[in-house]
Here is the input.
Amino acid sequence: MSVYKIRYGTPEEVVPSRFAPAPACDILTEQPAAAADMRFSTSPRGVKITMPIDPAACIYGFGLQLKGFQHRGTKKHIRPNADPVSNSGDTHAPVPFFVTTAGFGLYVDTARYATFYCGKELRPEKGQEDGTDANRLVSAFEDIYAIREGSDRTILTIEIPIAQGVDLYYITGETILSIVSQYNLLSGGGCMPPMWGLGCFYRCDMKFNEEQVLAMAHRIRELCIPCDILGLEPGWQSHTYSCSYVWDEGRFANAASTVKEICDAGFHLNLWEHAFTHPTAPIYDALIPYSGDYLVWNGLVPDFTLPEARKIFADHQRTLVEMGVSGFKLDECDGSDFTGGWTFPNCALFPSGMDGEQYHSLFGTLYAQTISEALGNRRTLSEVRNLGSLAASYPFVLYSDLYGHKDFITGVVNAGFSGLLWSPEVRHAENAEDLIRRVQSVVFSPQALVNAFYLSEMPWEMHGCTDEIRELFRVRMSLIPYLFTMFYDYHTQGKPPVRALVCDYEKEAEARECKDEYLFGDAMVVAPLTAPEKERDVWLPQGEWFDFFTGKRYEGGKHHIVTDGIPVFVKGGTLLPVAAPVEYVKPDTCFAITLRAYGDCKNAVCRLVEDSDETTDATYRVIELTEQAHETSSARYRVIGVEEMK
Amino acid sequence: MSVYKIRYGTPEEVVPSRFAPAPACDILTEQPAAAADMRFSTSPRGVKITMPIDPAACIYGFGLQLKGFQHRGTKKHIRPNADPVSNSGDTHAPVPFFVTTAGFGLYVDTARYATFYCGKELRPEKGQEDGTDANRLVSAFEDIYAIREGSDRTILTIEIPIAQGVDLYYITGETILSIVSQYNLLSGGGCMPPMWGLGCFYRCDMKFNEEQVLAMAHRIRELCIPCDILGLEPGWQSHTYSCSYVWDEGRFANAASTVKEICDAGFHLNLWEHAFTHPTAPIYDALIPYSGDYLVWNGLVPDFTLPEARKIFADHQRTLVEMGVSGFKLDECDGSDFTGGWTFPNCALFPSGMDGEQYHSLFGTLYAQTISEALGNRRTLSEVRNLGSLAASYPFVLYSDLYGHKDFITGVVNAGFSGLLWSPEVRHAENAEDLIRRVQSVVFSPQALVNAFYLSEMPWEMHGCTDEIRELFRVRMSLIPYLFTMFYDYHTQGKPPVRALVCDYEKEAEARECKDEYLFGDAMVVAPLTAPEKERDVWLPQGEWFDFFTGKRYEGGKHHIVTDGIPVFVKGGTLLPVAAPVEYVKPDTCFAITLRAYGDCKNAVCRLVEDSDETTDATYRVIELTEQAHETSSARYRVIGVEEMK
Here is the structure.
C-alpha cells in the first residue's frame, strides 16, 4: 500500500497538484516495479503513455461518471461538461484517476483533457497473429459492439494533449478501498463538514422575495419537515446571469434582517452564485486585470489561480458571510459544450498564462478554494457544479441539471472512486411515487438536498405526501451521528463515505458489475428503486445482512425485493448508532442514541465522533461504545438504549 | 461569388485537400477584404483564428449534424463519432466548413478535430463595458441558457489542435446556395450516380444464407415492390467482426451463381464490409506493413493514404466487382467514443506518419476512394458511415445506427450544407403508421434505403401495409428522371440535390429557423411527419405553391396540414417530369413521362438529363422541354402528355 510518484519529462506549470492542499500521505520517489513496463513518448500531440493491463482487470473512476461504471474496453475523454449525456468520459467533475482490480490505481497530474483507452490491442508483427476466433459471425445487433478482445498485447493507453511531460502517481493497494483512500490522502484527506451540513437542505424558488422566503421557512417549521439549510437561488441578486453579488433592493429590501430571521429559525443560509462577474458587480472594475480575454454571459471570468483575483472575490463574498451566510452554491463552473455554448473557450487566455482548457479542469476546485477563503475558519457543506483532481478536502457536494433518477444513482455509486461527493438532488417529480423514490435516494447520499428552485411550494405539498417525506427526512436525521463518523473516516483515513460495493468486496465477481447499489459508510448497503419500479434484485456480499428498518435477516447473494420503501441492509455484527431525529442540529444539540445491534454484536464497537466546535480548527474525539459499555461523557451524544435487530 | 485561399503559417502535411479530387472552380490567391480582420496565432495548442461576425448572422454546416441546425452562439467540436447523441458537433461525418447569412462561408483545410466557437464576446478593457442589461433577472429555467449577448466585440473563434499553420478557403456568395455550390465545386463537383442508384434499395437479414436471399429477391418481385439494389449484410463473409472479405462457404456455397441469379432478376448487388481486416482475410499478411499500430476487433487498420494499402485492398474487392457486385456498404469507419470504445486511438500511428486523429477525419473518404478504385469506371450509389471534408464527389450516402425519425430528418436538412448525402434509412417500425411515416421520408431523400439487417421478413409484411409501401416506392420511381437532373446539377454546378430552405430563401426570416422541411431539388419542398403526428405546420417561401399529389394551391406563409401522407409542395411555374413507375431501372428503360404543370407554366422549362452509359466516362445530354414542345429523340424518355395541376 504505497503512493509512488513517476515523473516523465518536464510537467506543465499549471497542474492540479500545484493548487492542492499538502498530501496527508507519504509519496515514494523510488520507482514501482510496474514502471519498467510503462512506455512514454512525446510528440506535438502531447504525452503518450502505454502500459500492459490484465485484459480481465476491471477499471473504475474518472470522476463523476453518470453514464458508465466499469470502464474496461472503453475510451474515456476527461472533459468537463455540464450536460454529460453519453458514456464518453464527459462529466461535471472529470478526474484523471482510475483504480483497477489489478492492485493499482493511477492518478495523472494534468489539467489537460486527457484520454484513457482502457484496454486496446496492439497489432502483432507478421506471424504473431492469434487467429483464435476464426469462423465467428456477429449475428445479432447487440453482439457487434460487445466484442472484447484480450491478449498479451492488451495495453492501456493514456494521451495528454499539449504537455511534454507529466507526473504520475501510481498507487498500490490490496483493495480498491485502500487505493482510493490513499488517493484521498494524497488530496489532503476528505472534507469534514459541520454536523448541520449533514442535515436536510431546501432551496427556495428563485423568484421568491424576502417575504416569500420567510413564509417558506415558517411553513417548513410548521410542517415539522427536518431542515438545517435554506438556499436562495439567483433572485437574491440584483443581476443574474452574470452575477452582481449584491442583494436585489426590490426583492430583498431588508436583507440583513431577513438573514437574521432565517438563522434565528435554526436554518443555515446558502446563497447561489456563479463566478461570471457582471458589470454592475462592485468588484467588476477591480477584477478586469485579473480576468480572461473572453466574457461569459457578458461577465468577467476571474483567474482564480491569481491571489489577487481570489482576494478581490473572497473579500466581497466575506461581507455576505459576515451577514450570517454559511455556505454557497457555486453554479455553472462546469464548462459546457452542449447547453448553448456558454462558458469560455478552451483557447481563452488568462492573465496567469493559463489557457481555457486548463482552467476548465481547475475552475470548480479553485472556485471552491476561493469561497473557502471567504468562509474563513467556518466549516460548511456547500455545493459546486464542477470539481477536478485532488478535490477530496473541499466541503462542496456536486449536483447536476440532468435529472434521470437512474443516472443520479450511478453518480452516487461512482463519485466515491475519485474523491468526490455527489447529491442526487430532488427537484420536481412526476407524482408522489416518483418524489418518494427520489427522496429515498437523496436521504441516503452525501447531501440530502431538495432543489425547488422553480417550485413555489414544497413538492410534497404539491403531491400530497408530506407525511411520507417527513418520515424519510427523519430517517436522515437519525443517521447524522453515523454520517458524522463516516465523514471523520473520510477526513482522517481518506475512506469515501459513500462508495461502490466493489471498493470493499472486489474479490466477489458480482461486486465488480454492481452499479446500482452502494455502501453508505462501512456498515450499510443501499439499493434504491426508481419509479415506477416496485421491485428489484439486490445483491449482497458474502455474510449476514439485516434489513435496516425491520431487522429481517439475509444471507449474502441475490435477493428479489418488493417494497415501497428503500432497501437498506446493515452488515451483521454492526452496532449502529441511531438518533432520535431532531428537526435541525443546533450547536448544543445532544443526540439521544439507540444502539441497534444487527446480528451478533458481542464483539462490535460503535464509534461516535464529537467535534470541539464548527471551525476548521476543531479537535475531534472518538467515542467507542459496546453493547455492554455505552455510557458517554459527551455533551453531543446520550445513549438511551440498545435494540436487538435480529 | 469567389473562392479565396488564405494561407497562414505552414499547414500540416496530412490535410484533406491533399487527397481530394481537383477543384472544379477557380481559387483566388489574392486576399479577400475580410482577411484584414482575421487574427491568427499559434501556440503549442495549435492554430487559433478569430474574426468578427455580425451577431445576428446565422451559421449552418459542420457536416452531418443530427442534433443542431442553426449554430450561432454555440460551440461545435468537429469530431467523428458513431453515436452522436448531443449537439456538440460530434457526428458520423464532421466537416470543418460553415456557411453564414453574412455573405460568406469558410472551409478550414484540416484533418484535426477543430473547434468552432460561433460567436463569443471578448472582454472589454476597463471603461469600455456595455452595461446595457442592468437589472435583469433570469427567472425561468429555460431562460438561463438562452441568453445571447451580441456587440461589436462578438467574434468567431476557431481552434485547430496541434497544427502550426493552415489553409482557409473563404467563399463569398449572394446566397447560401451559391456558397455551398462553390464548396462542392472546390470538392471536385457532386457525384453522379447511375439511374439505378436512385431507385429503391433493400438490405437483407444478416443471417440469411443464399437460399434465403434468393427467396427474398423473388418475394420482392412477387409483391411488385420496386427495388433496384439488394444488399447483403455481414453474413456473406466467413468472418465478421473483423472482416475476412471472402464468401462464407456454409451460407454461400454457390456465391457466383447466387450473384448471377440476383443480377438476372434485375437487382444490383451491394455488399456490406468494414475495413478492419481479420487474420483469415487473404490480404491480411500483405496489409501488415501498411497498417496502424493498433488493432480493431482484432483486425488490421489499413493506412489508405498509402497507395500500397489501397492497391492490396482494391485488388481484392475488385474480384467481387468482377463477380457482379455493383456497390458496397462501408461500415464502422466513423470512430466512436461511446459505443464500447472500438476503433483505433487518436494517438495511433500509421506507416505514412499520420496519426489516429487525422485518420479518423479522413477514414471514410479514403475508404470510399479505395472502393471506387475497386469499382473501376463503374458508377454506383453506395453507402458509407463516415465522410469528411471535400467529399461531394464520392457516390456514397451516409447512414446511422441512431434511429430517431426526427433526428434523421434533421440529417436530411443539414447534410446538403457540407457536400454530403444522407439517407434516413428505414429499419424496424413501432407499427404500420411509424413504418409508413419513415418510408415517406426516405423516399424523398437521396437514397431510398430499407436496411432490414435484423428482420427476417420485409417490415411492411410484418405490419400489413404492403400496398401503402409499394405505392410510396412507386412515387420514388416516378421521380427518378427528376432526381437524375438534380444529381446532374450537383455534379456540374455543385448544387446540393437535397437542402435546407435557407439555402435558397435566406432573405426570409422563417427560412433561417426552418429545420424540419427541405428542398428536394429546385422545385419541391418536403415537410415530413413522424409518427404519431397526424398534423403539422408547414412554412412555404413567398410565392405560389401546389400540393405535389393533388395540385391544391398554397400561398407562401404558414399552413397547418393534417394528413396521413407526406406534405410535398411544388413551386408554381414548375413543369415537373413524372414517370410511369418501373420496378427497377434497366440499361434500356425508357421512362414514360407526364409533364405536370404546376401553376402557370407558359414560360417553364423542364430539363431532363440522359447519360451515354453507366460509367464514369459517360457523356450527358440535357433535354429541355416546354408545355408546347415536349417531343424528345431520347431512348431514355418518352413524353406521354401534359397534366395541368392547378
In short: Chain B has a mean pLDDT of 95. DSSP finds 15 helices and 28 strands in chain B.
